[in-house]
Amino acid sequence: MSDEALAAVKARLKAYDGPRMRIMEVCGSHTAAIVKNGIPGLLSKQIELVAGPGCPVCVTPTDYIDRLIALSQEENTCVVTFGDLLRVPGSAGTLMQAKNAGGRAEMVYSPFDILAMAQAEPATTFIFAAVGFETTAPVYALLLDQIVEAHIENIRFLTALKTMPPVIDALCAGGADVQGLIAPGHVAVVIGSDAFKPLAEAYQLPFGVAGFSGMHLLYAIDGIVRARGRGTVMNFYPEAVTPTGNVKAQDLVAKYFEPGDALWRGIGVIPGSGLFLKPAVQCFDMGSQALQHDHPMNAACRCGEVLRGAIAPQDCPLFKTACTPLHPQGACMVSAEGNCLSVYNQN
Amino acid sequence: MEQTVITTEHGSGGAATAALIDGIFAKAFDNPVLAQMEDSAVVPGAGEIAVTTDSFVVDPLFFNGGDIGRLSVCGTVNDLLMRGAEPKYLTCGFILETGLLVEELKRIAASMAATAKEAGVTIVAGDTKVVEGGGGLYINTAGIGFAQGREIGARQIQPGDVIILSGNLGEHHAAILSERLSIDTDIASDCAPLVEMVRALMTSDVTVHAMRDITRGGLATILKEMAETSGLTFELKESCLPVTPKVRDFCGLLGLDPLYMGNEGKMAVMVPESDADEAIRLIRASAYGAHAAVVGRVSAGEPGQVVVETAVGGRRNIDVLRGEGLPRIC
Predict the structure, then answer these.
(1) CB within 8 A of A347, min separation 6: which ones?
(2) Are A42 and B314 an interchain contact pair (Cβ–Cβ within 8 Å)?
(3) A 72-91 residues with CB below 8 A of B?
(4) What is the rounded CA–CA span in Å between residue B140 and residue B142?
(5) Residue pair A220/A209 in contact by the 8 Å Cβ criterion
(6) For A337, which residue in chain B has the nearest alpha carbon?
(7) Is the pLDDT higher at A347 or at B13?
(8) Is the Cβ of A38 closer than 8 Å to some Cβ of chain B?
């Protein structure tokens, strides 16, 4: 894209004076990239960006964290997780607090690190805290492939895997005040841009699949604003996203996982929005389906409404008072991609 | 027969400890003060002294561009330099885990000796302890330097100053992370003593208001801290921040931000705008300063704010690093 084309997009977005457009991004990396690039300041007051439930850590219910904590405290077990999850509050504290009190939880950057850990300590059961969306699911499927092949018997999964189209569907069906969506770019790499077509058509909303640079985002927002009122999917990330996605990754996921009803923090159960281990590989599961309760640490926490885009983080009474990055009350203030932390960092 | 791994015997304080010290440290750091092997070192000096200490726990011990030994000298030397002091003496405390290969310890001692020589400091005292473990090694160094009688620090920063960065961001962090994740990037750590560039600035007519080396937490964290201390606003231009394409791509892949990544051989310097060209010239002419650039400005604005103008023209406020970052990078 030329500098002139970008300048024209920026000029159009700043000058827009049509009907108010509330555009939701449902990908935590987009939320972070919007803040990082200072996008809101480049838009007309008539265009508002609102973050949706796109951060996998943020939508993980307290039951899940509580179960991880309990597992970390059992004899001969070790919970293995990505960093953010250590600090997410459950109903009574965080995994980090449990670890400091003698529980066993290890942070990894790659899920595959669990293979060497499990082989080095055969008497310990290693439980991977498998959170994520369609982008992360293929990695866990690949890991399962290797576990099965190497006959490793001391690795288990506690899954909280979720999929995007059902939650977008639930938000739109629930009457969310949005006039367009920035579709998640990384998820679209895996599932393809066509996956959003039924939603765009059903709700007559423009979906723009976007990449993650400032320029990518500006082009997508411009496209969405110009397609206002039309049920269409536009791909502004063609260098990475195809209509049908990565079929190999989809097949790998389908080999080990099947859809099921999943609980989203602050939102509730959404039918078919989770991925669970199939019956044939249930032996690797640590009771993921049983986690059906969500009890926030602080009753005043409005994470749910923030995640649905119904209120801005600043509208939560705990924001910047009881809830800060050092003392988060809800997951949205923990994750680097969390809606509340993103806004907190801007103020 | 010489043992090939560290055992609890090396920590006994007896013959094996003495053999280890004589065979490795005394040999590598050889100098008349250390050679006295007394309970403390007595060194000449006068006037105001700068003192600092730092501990090094990096994992892995060896990485592309350096090792824990070089790091342990650079970290402490650079901390002395940032107050405008001339680094002179170092002490080093080693905590060795059983199972450490003696060969690795020799390499680390040799690397420390070479880095100390490069930085012009003498290692005058040391200590060794052994703990049960899995072949790890931790080093503490303390440093003494002679202050040059100039007030250098965040409180000296003035509105109108420019912010100079001595080189590319994120290289140490990216190098360590590449090793940990077994990603083949050939990104090398920038771990280096900044003696030459600081000396060049300090002996020139440039008025240096503040210097800070960029370690854990990255440029964002140190600038936010300095902005708060100075009560001023720092404005950065993202397009001016020097980052190599390799580090930029690596960050893109892993969702990291170069502004929050640690270096071990870079500094930020605040000087009056009228001195900016000369400061840049001096830093670029010094070792490790080839990519120095002006990256921002200081204004009276809102106290403690650090604002970045992004590549697409947006603005964002930056804050200190929160959460884990990357543990054990230094």
Answers:
(1) A314, A320, B317
(2) yes
(3) 83-84, 86-87
(4) 7
(5) yes
(6) B255
(7) B13
(8) yes
* ipTM value greater than 0.90: no
Structure tokens at B308: 């970045």
Residue of B nearest to A217 (CA): B312
Nearest by CB: B181 against A41, A110, A214: A110
At A82, is the pLDDT very low, low, confident or very high (cuts 50, 70, 90)? confident
Residue B325 has what pLDDT? 59
CA dist., res. B20 & res. B101, Å (int): 12
Instruction: At A241, list the tokens.
Output: 């996203």
Nearest-neighbour CA in chain A from B83: distance (Å): 30
Q: Is A41 part of the contact surface with chain B (CB cutoff 8 Å)?
A: yes
Relative orientation angle of helices A214-226 and A3-15, to the nearest 10 degrees: 50
Question: What does the DSSP 8-state code read for residue B60?
Answer: S
Closest residue of chain B to A28, computed from CA coordinates: B255
Which pLDDT does position B219 carry in this prediction? Answer: 96
Partnered with residue B272 across adjacent β-strands are B161
B155 in A contact zone (CB under 8 Å): no
Cβ–Cβ under 8 Å, residues B3 and B102: yes
- Lowest mean pLDDT segment, chosen from A327-336, B30-39, B246-255: A327-336
Give the type of residue at A290.
A
Two structure tokens written together for B160: 């109108």
| CA A242-A165-A145 angle, 5° bins | 70
pLDDT at B330 over 80: no
Mean pLDDT of B217-235: 96
Residue that the structure tokens 């300090």 belong to: B202
- The DSSP element (H or E) to which B125 belongs, if any, is strand B122-131
Over residues A284-303, the pLDDT tens digits come to: 999 998 887 887 767 888 88
Taking residues B9-36, what's their average pLDDT?
Answer: 91
The pLDDT of residue B13 is 86
Is B315 in contact with A38 (Cβ distance < 8 A)?
yes
- Interface-testing mutation among B176, B251, B302, B316, with chain A (most A C-beta atoms within 10 A): B316
CB B32 within 8 A of CB B26: no
Torsions phi, psi of B87, nearest 5?
A: -70, 135
Beta strand spans in chain A (E)? 21-25, 47-51, 77-81, 105-107, 125-132, 155-162, 180-183, 206-209, 232-235, 257-264, 268-277
pLDDT reported for residue B1: 45
H/E run at residue B50: strand B49-56
To the question of domain A62-163+246-290 being in CATH 3.40.50.11740, the answer is yes
Of A301, A311, A308, A310, which is closest to residue A334 (Cα–Cα)? A301
Place of tokens 């109108």: B160
Asked whether B107 and B60 are in contact (CB, 8 A), the reply is no
Residue A92 scores a pLDDT above 90: no
User: How would you classify residue A121: left for phi > 0, otherwise alpha for psi between -120 and 50, otherwise beta?
Assistant: beta
Which domains, ranges and CATH numbers included, belong to chain B?
8-146 (3.30.1330.10), 154-317 (3.90.650.10)
Separation of alpha carbons B220 and B240, rounded Å: 14
Contact indicator for B177, B65 with CB cutoff of 8 Å: no
Of the candidates B255, B312, B323, which has its C-beta nearest A42's C-beta?
Answer: B312
Q: Cβ A38–B319 below 8 Å, yes or no?
A: no
Q: What is the structure's pLDDT at A322?
A: 87
Is B134 within 8 Å of chain A by CB?
no
Best of A12, A27, A37 to disrupt the B interface (most B CBs within 10 Å) is A37
For residues B16-42, average pLDDT:
92
B318 neighbourhood in chain A, CB within 8 Å: 345
